[in-house]
Amino acid sequence: MVASRQLWIAGESVGAADGTTFPVENPYSGEVVAHVARAGADDAHRAVDAATAALGDWAATSGNARANVLHRAYRLVSKYREELARLLVDEGGKIVAEAAKEVRTGGAFIRLAAEEARRLGGELLPAPDAAQRIVVAHRPVGVVAAFTPANAPVNVFGRKAACALGAGCTVVVKPPEETPLSTLLLVELLAEAGVPSGAVNVVVGDAPAIAGVLTTHPAVRLVTFTGSAHRGRQLMARAAEAGTPVILELGGVAPFVVFEDADLDAAVAGLVAAKFRMSGQICASPQRVIVQRGAADGFRDKLLRRVATLRFGDPDDPANDYGPLYHERILKGVEALVNDAVSKGATLLCGGTRGEGLLYPPTVITGVTPDMEVRREEAFGPILTLEEFGDEAEAVTLANDTDYGLGAYVFTADGSRGWRVAEAVQAGVVGVNEAFPVTIEGPFGGVKGSGFGREGGRYGIEEFLVTKQITFRI
Fold first, then answer.
1. Distance (Å, whole) CA 280 – CA 286
2. What residues have CB less than 8 Å from 110, skipping those under 6 apart?
3. How do strand 143-147 and strand 220-226 relate by DSSP bridges?
4. CA distance 396 to 394
C-alpha cells in the first residue's frame, strides 16, 4: 500500500493549503512509495508563523531542559532506527548498511545537540571602570530556515535542525522532494520527545516558492543550506536582499594526494571505501586522485583491481557495495561529465556506461586536463580521475587548482610532509592517512566556492547563536 504523508506545521500533520500532493519514488525500482502533501508559499508562511510564535518560550527554556528533550529524541531515533533506515532505502536508494549508518550518525548529532545545549554559557570581561561589569552572553539567533539534501537527509537534519533547537532556536525544515519521508518521521519523533508545538516544522513541495518565502521572510534570522553550488548561490542572493545571514555547504571536488612513500594498499582501500559508498553521492568524497609519478603505475593497477570487485545494484542485496543514484538528473550530470572528458581526449580505464535504471558503474578516468568539466566540477557520482605529480610543491598546486575547498586527503609515510601538505591544502576538512576525516565532534565546512559556516561539535551550535555584550554599572 502506498503511504500518504502530510506536512508538519505547528505541531500537527497537515495537508497543503491547495490540497495537492506529489509522489515519492524508489530510485531503484521506480515504484511510488508515498504521496506527500505539496507545500507552496502559503504553507511556508504558515510554518514561519508557527516557528515565530514558538520562539519566545523555547528560547527562554533552560539549556538543561532543552537537553532533556533532545536526549529523549535521541532515544526515540534509536528505537525507530529500523523504520528510519527502511525509509532511506526506499526513498534514497541507499544500501541497507549505509542507511543504518546514517541513522546512527543522525541520532548522534541529536545527542551532541543535547550535550552542547547544557554547556552554552558566557563570559565576564575585565571592565575599564571599577564600577562596571561586562558580561558576554550567547543568545539564539531566532527562527532558522534549514534546507537539507537528498543524499543525507537524516544526518543533515541532525546537524541543522537538532543543533538549532539545542541553541534555543525554532526551525522550519525544507527537505528535498526526493527524500522527505525520513524527515517527516524524525519530526514526529521530536514532537513525541517533547519539542513544543511550532518549534520545528517541515514543508516540502514547490521548492522555488518555499525558498522564496524562507529566504526573504523578515522573521527568518538565519538560512542554512546544504546542496549544489548553483542552488546555494541562488539562495544566498535572495537572502542578501533581506539581509539574512546564511550558512552554505556547497560540495567540492576533493583531491586525494598519494606520495611515493605511502602505503599504497591502505591508500587504495581508503579511497575506494570513501569514494563509492552512497554511490559517490557525498559532497566531501574524493574525486581527483593525484599520485606521485614513481607510484602512479602501481597505484593505478591496485586501484583498478579493487574497483573491479565492487558490486552495485539492488540496495536490499547485502552483497552490493552501492545502489542507484537518487534521481535521473544526477545520473545525467554524471554522464555529461564523462562524455565531456572523453570527447576532449580523456581515457576511460573502467566504467563510463550507465547501467539499468539509475545505476552507474564505478568509473576511473585518466588523461584529464584543466579544460574538462570533471576536473573542475563536482561529479556527485561514482567517478574518479587520475593525475600525476612530481614533487610536493606540484602536489599542493594541483590540489588547490579548484574553485572549491571542502574535503582533501593526503597519504604519506612522512609525518612532517603530512603536516605541511595538510596545512597548505585549501580545504575545510583534511584527512592525513585517513579516508574518513569528518567527525561529529569536529567542525565540518568548506572554503572558497564550497561555502562558509561550520557544522558539528560546539562549532555547529555556535552558528545558531548571536553574541551580546551587557554592561552593568554597580
1. 9
2. 70, 73, 74, 77, 158, 162
3. parallel
4. 5
Helix, strand, coil percent content, the chain, rounded in steps of 5: 40, 25, 35
Q: Of the residues 91, 102, 283, 455, which is catalytic?
A: 283
CB of 62 closer than 8 Å to CB of 99: no
Q: Which of 453, 358, 1 is nearest to 150 (CA)?
A: 358
Ranges of residues in the chain whose predicted pLDDT is under 70: 1
Name the CA radius of gyration of the chain, rounded. Answer: 23
pLDDT at 39: 98
Of the residues 102, 178, 249, 388, only one is catalytic, namely 249
Q: Any catalytic annotation for residue 249?
A: yes
Residue 163 is among the residues annotated as catalytic for this protein: no
Model confidence pLDDT, tens digit, residues 251-278: 899 999 999 999 999 999 999 999 999 9
Residue 345 to residue 278: CA distance in whole angstroms: 29
Place of cell 522573521: 219
Angle at 391 between CA 366 and CA 296, to 5 degrees: 35
104-134 burial: b if 16+ Cβ within 10 Å, else e: bbbbbbbbbbbbbbbebeeeeeeeeeeeeee
* Angle value at C-alpha 260, between 259 and 265, nearest 5 degrees: 90
